[in-house]
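Side project, low priority. Logging it here so it doesn't get lost.
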Amino acid sequence: MTASHSAPETTAKQQWAGGLTIFGAVMLMIAGVLDIFRGIMGIAQDDVFVTTRNYVFQFDLTGWGWVHLILGAVAVIVSLGLFQAALWARIAGVTIAALIIIANFLSLPYYPVWSVVMIAMSGFVIWALCVVQREASPDMFGSRRGGM
């Protein structure tokens, strides 16, 4: 008697789950890189942004630059963990994407069109990371993850 060990077959649902996780990782990476650029732009050149006088959430543009720079850097780091389908990265990805949405909502008067674009991208990230079931999410190479 010989035992044959075959690789587990992946179902269409598992392939969709893997695709959505990778989609979320790529979108979070793009949002993070763009947020880093926006943060650098806010720190280095305050003249790029539109200034408003009577806005409820008044905050120095250099301060907004630091907020976006930090959120962008964390988003890039978390997106690297998403490529390995780590559970901590999915939780952190949803959290960072939500914080990016809040930061962009609060900075709407300074850069309105770009803020709306970033809010939409982060919304897609949250959607992609929340619809994947944990037991069906394979890593990038197609094998199912055990443990965490």
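Brief comment: DSSP finds four helices and no strands in the chain.
Revisit when time allows.
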